[in-house]
Amino acid sequence: MMGTSKTRWARRVARWTRRQQVVAVSMTIAVAGALVAQDTKPSAKPDAKAAGQIDAISQQATRLEGELGKFKDSSAEAADVMVKLVDLYHQHGRLFGLIRVAQRFVTSHSTDKRHHDVLLKLVDGLDAASRHNDFVASARQWLDLYPKDPAAAGIEIRLAAVLDRQSDRRASGTAHEVVFRRNPRSVVGLRHGVIAVEQFAGVNNKAVYSRAATLAEELLAIFPKGVSAEEAGWQAVAQWRRGNEWAKSNSAATKLLAKGLPAAVERKRQLHLMMGENFGRLGQWANATDSYGKARAVRDDRDAHYLSITALSNNQAAKPAQMEPVVTDYLRKYPARADRFDRLGLLAVKYEQAKDLANANRIFAQLLPLSARSHRAASAFLRTRGTEPAGGHAASEKALVDAINRNPNNDDKAYLRFVLAFEVYRDRMKQVEKTRATLRQLVSTSPSNESYTTNAASWLFSNATSDAEFNAEVARYLVARKRVPHMTSFRGVLASWIDSARRNKDTKNRAASAKALLKTADADPLLSAWVAGESNKKKGDTAREGLLAGNLYKQLSNDAARNLLSRHAYYLRHSVPGNQRSRSTGAYGQLAKRFPKEFTLAVDWLAAATDYGPPEAAAEAARHLMSLQAPSSSSDVFRRLMVAADTNKSADIARAAHTWIVGVEKAHGPAFTYAYQ
Question: What is the end-to-end Cα distance of the chain in Å, rounded?
Fold first, then answer.
């Protein structure tokens, strides 16, 4: 939710600083232009006076150069001549001579009282000649030696402008910050402070973008209420968050709010959401609750509502009675959201933490037929029932059995059977045979790829009362395994058990027997083809194609078929050479046709068809997608429908797409990314 905000911050700060940079660059151009203008070529026909003057300057320079050659550079006589040459070359814009002689003087006479002026003129020459690296070095040297000189402010500005043209944003930011520090409340200082923030923020190093945050907070304090103060504060909040400095980010946000900013209510809402997240990272859940409440007061939506429940559940000061209406409202507003059961589970946990076991048990009981694995509701249901009398576990047994029958989710069924078998039958009722029977049901009728199922199968193998019973358990497992070849953990549980059991003298014979049965099962055509198709190489591609084209595909359950087709379609779209990616259109089409009511699969088919498929495939995919109800507005889906119409030169598809798009946007709001009307 927060990622796109950082992009917006960058764009806004770029606009904010662009106008500020113009002034600094203009100053640099003016200084350089003054020197370069002196060094321009004379006109083709200079008048006699100008020609004579140029000739006189050259003669004077030649005479001085000759005189300089008589002395060592380090001598006082050479120093005097060099100063005369530097003055001559600087006055008349002879850049190369100026640079050459001034560099010799600066190197040889660092203690000479004229060093200040010569080095300053060298800086001018290097700037005018666009020798940026040398200019930077000389300007820094001059500033180090003469930081309080009246000319220092101008040199700092010119240095910052030159560094802007180079790739070192840290150095550029530092230079602009120096200008700001010299006079932080002046217009020029503030301009450079703004640019420094931008430059520091552009470096992906915490120490550097933390400087952006610190400087931005200073600017927030200086600027009067307005857009500049708002952008400075926003940058401070953003850069501290970027470095996981949650407390500092919220301190900056508090200062921003104290100034009556942000001005726009939507941006203020976003700020409250960020503050809520920051408080949560700090474990300050009462403050997070308050921030999310303020965001929801501006405008409520699912994300803010969801986060409010998270904050309330972690807020030790919040009572369950305070949290329950917020959760109830979430369930009412978002009845199709899968995460609604997780929110309800948090409420149950809140009641349990408050020692209100009756209400906790009531809510955990609600979850059993809906989302039993949310907060391990089945175990929590038993835990919150309190102490039951001996032999009084029938009610718990009945509740779990009823939930198994009502809950449509296979993974939930596996979990419920696991809890019923171990926590009720084995641990509470001490009925091992019921435990065994329930675990057999789990493995045979509702296996999952989770530890509940693998642990159940391992228990059955390890607790068989005879060799015949053990072989029967293995046989039941192998039958179930063939039905769910996509469950890799479940598929491998017997092999893992064998590897462990063969080391034990009491179980090594059973391990040998199971190994022989497993070897036979692994040779099954369906299983062997499936395993071969798990490779993400060419062999896997060939094996999957064979599995999809033959009679074996008809034996697959919907879950197994979905797994196979999804993996194969993704491989064909992303992993094969470009000239073979059109094959993905057929795979995605086969997947969408197997599950014709699923909108996401219809979108995948349309995407593959418009990217890689022939026109007729795009048309078929478009018509299929438009037969479904869209859950939201998507500019990319809208665009692809029009691409399908265009590639088929079909006005009928275009009209149908337009009608469908208008209906979707009427239901879910407009999508602005592409213009299609």
Answer: 29
Dihedral sign of CA atoms 314, 316, 321, 325 in order: negative
Q: Which amino acid is at 486?
A: H
Worst-scoring range by mean pLDDT, 25-34, 342-351, 424-433, 546-555?
25-34
d(CA 186, CA 103): 35
Who's near 148: CB < 8 A, 6+ residues apart?
none
Place of tokens 């602005």: 672
Residue pair 94/88 in contact (Cβ under 8 Å)? The answer is yes
579: CATH: 1.25.40
Find the angle CA(202)-CA(205)-CA(211) to the nearest 5 degrees. 70
Q: Please report the pLDDT score of residue 57 as a whole number.
A: 87
Q: Please enumerate in sequence order all residues whose Cβ is within 8 A of that of 339, keeping only pairs 6 or more positions apart, or say none.
A: 306
Would you say the C-alpha torsion 31, 36, 39, 43 has a positive or negative sign? Answer: negative
* 243: helix, strand or coil: coil
What is the domain range of residue 595? 556-668
CATH code of the domain in which 160 resides: 1.25.40.10
Confidence (pLDDT) at 671: 80
Q: Is 465 exposed, middle or buried (0-12, 13-18, 19+ CB in 10 A)?
A: exposed
Question: What pLDDT band is residue 10 in, cutting at 50, 70 and 90?
Answer: very low
Q: Residue 555 class from Cβ within 10 Å (0-12 exposed, 13-18 middle, 19+ buried)?
A: middle
**Rounded Cα gap, residues 239 and 676, in angstroms:** 38
Q: Report pTM.
A: 0.78
CA pair distance 178, 153, nearest whole angstrom: 9
Residue 110: Cβ within 10 Å count: 11
C-alpha R_g of the chain: 38
Residue 653 placed within a domain: yes
Would you call 633 helix, strand, or coil by DSSP?
Answer: coil
Residue 58 lies inside a defined structural domain of this protein:
yes
Instruction: Say if 319 falls within a structural domain.
Output: no
Determine the residue type at 663. G
Rounded CA-CA distance 634/44 in Å is 66
Residue 287 has pLDDT above 80, yes or no: yes
Q: Sorting pLDDT into bands at 50, 70 and 90, what band is 3? A: very low
Residues 474 and 622 both lie in one domain: no
Other C-beta atoms closer than 10 Å to the C-beta of 8 total 13
Q: Exposed, middle or buried by CB within 10 Å (0-12, 13-18, 19+), for 594?
A: middle
Angle in degrees, CA 246, 251, 254, rounded to 5: 125
Whether residues 19 and 107 fall in one domain: yes
Contact partners, residue 151, CB within 8 Å, separation at least 6: 120
> Residues 6 or more apart from 284 whose CB is under 8 A from it?
none
CB 226 within 8 A of CB 256: no
Report the alpha-carbon distance of residue 267 to residue 200 in Å, rounded: 24
